[in-house]
Amino acid sequence: MKADMENIEDLELHLWDYIDGRCNAAEQERIAQLLMTNELWRSKYAEFMAFNTSMHDNMAIDQPSMRFAKNIMDSVTSTTIAPAAKNYINFKIIKGIAAFFFIAIAGLCIVAFSGSSMHSTYTGYTNNKSSMNLNLSLLASPAIMNLMIIIGILLGLLLTDNLLRSRDKHVVR
């Protein structure tokens, strides 16, 4: 019984390969001989061919509407293309941050050196003495601290405003 089932399954596989044209020339010749001589092969072949033709006849190929491609192209043109990676970096913000740090460091240096007293004494080639006294207490004064806090708040507000404006420009509506 099991051998018969394997033979029938093998027969069906060979017949479908023959119908679909997936077998080589020698295999086609062998199956054609079997179809002429063997009644089982002939009846299965007729059954499969009837099924195959009914499938092709009943299966209508759906055609898209005449305006299908135009509708797709219209929907694609309304979308925006994502900017390249270099457009994600706003160089104005980076330059603004760099300018803030440069101005802050320069201001701290100016304040530190303005309150210092520098003098050097020259006593010959072997004994060169110079002294520099920095007065850093000026940096800790309340006026300087308040000024730095105000500048920091203003730059933070400018940065926030710039970020919010640039985010509104990139929103797709």
Structure description:
By secondary structure, the chain is mainly α. The chain has 2 domains: 2-58, no CATH class; 85-169, no CATH class. Helix content is 66%, strand content 7%. The protein contains 6 helices and 2 strands, in the order αααααββα. The longest helix has 28 residues, at 142-169. It is rod-shaped, with a radius of gyration of 44 Å. It starts with a helix and ends with a helix.
Could you give a quick summary of the protein structure above?
With 173 residues, this protein is mostly helical. Helix content is 66%, strand content 7%.
Keywords:
single chain; 173 residues; mainly alpha; 2 domains; two-stranded antiparallel sheet; 6 helices; 7% strand; rod-shaped
Order of helices and strands: HHHHHEEH
Q: What is the percentage of strand-forming residues?
A: 5-15%
Shape: rod-shaped
- Kindly report how far apart the N and C termini lie: 70 Å
Number of domains: 2
Helix content: 55-70%
Mean pLDDT, nearest integer?
77
- Class per helix and strand makeup: mainly alpha
Task: Tell me the strand order in the biggest sheet.
Answer: 1-2
Question: Rg to the nearest angstrom?
Answer: 44 Å
Number of alpha- plus pi-helical segments = 6
Low-confidence stretches: none
| Largest sheet entry | 2 strands, antiparallel
Extended strand count: 2
